[in-house]
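As promised in the previous annual report, we have extended the structural survey to additional targets. Below is the entry for Bifunctional protein FolD.
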Amino acid sequence: MNTPAPIKLIDGKAAAARVIAEVKTQVAAMKNQGIAPALTVILVGQDPASQVYVRNKVLRAEECGIRSEEHRLPADTSEATLLALIGELNADASVHGILVQLPLPAHIDETRVLQAIDPLKDVDGFHAENVGGLSQGRDVLTPCTPAGCMRLLEDSMGDLSGKHAVVIGRSNIVGKPMAALLLKAHCTVTVVHSRSANLKELCRQADIVVAAVGRPRLVDADWLKPGAVVIDVGINRITEGERSRLVGDVDFDSALPKVAAITPVPGGVGPMTIAFLMKNTLTAARLQQEAPCPSIS
Ligand code: NAD
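The corresponding structure token record, generated without further manual editing, is:
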């Protein structure tokens, strides 16, 4: 009798559904204590992709029992107006999470805006205080995509201690916080990027590869050690003939026979990002109960 092949596909949709179920239970428990977790999303401008992302975030929050609110501002909104709105939301004790959808129009300084959000309400985990806390290994509000990747890795591998992880990409949103989380989980971490030499050779040494690049199918089987676990963060739209479709940064078909496990695109990391936004909103509400005075007024 043949032994069944081990399951190689990391099912992000199923993992995200488990996170959402945890969040729903905890939101209900919090409401029983008289606290109604609430998320506010701010969108400046009309970018079609951002509009879809914001709508999905709000809908998912409602599904979890999290009160959600959208502020849609015109593309020519001044930085001062946006900062004033953030100031009001910081001071509003009924708002627990504030998310400013990126990218912002070019005339607005993104760093200044992210720094204006109360770190305890910073559900994207982009405020310097949370970034610093993460690099110190503290439990702080952590960027949603890398937090989701960590959950997928821990679900498939258990203890990550001592594993060699190669992170491809060094963005503030994915690559850098991913590296910090892997270090916190006791991995040996190599971060490679557009200026790295010997990228493929470094990748071949990895037990874990996290690809967050934005280059369709950059990583193929030749880059991977047999038995590696691969998390593909990339979302790239490509056109094949008349059809357009989404692919990751990893050439899935070539990698699959060689790896121990891999996330598909779509259906891998994507669903985890939004699930961890819900989890972060709940965490933010808890943190504010522990320290009810706004840290920024
Ligand atoms: P980014 O453009 O900010 O960063 C890309 C990084 O890749 C940079 O650090 C750059 O140095 C590196 N890079 C570029 N070309 C390279 C090459 N040829 N070799 C090695 N490194 C190279 O992008 P980002 O915001 O980190 O996003 C990366 C990808 O992940 C994108 O496809 C994005 O759409 C996707 N993404 C997905 C989710 C999700 O929820 N699934 C969330 C965020 C980002």
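The chain is about 40% helix and 15% strand. The radius of gyration is 20 Å. These points will be discussed at the next consortium meeting with the crystallography subgroup.
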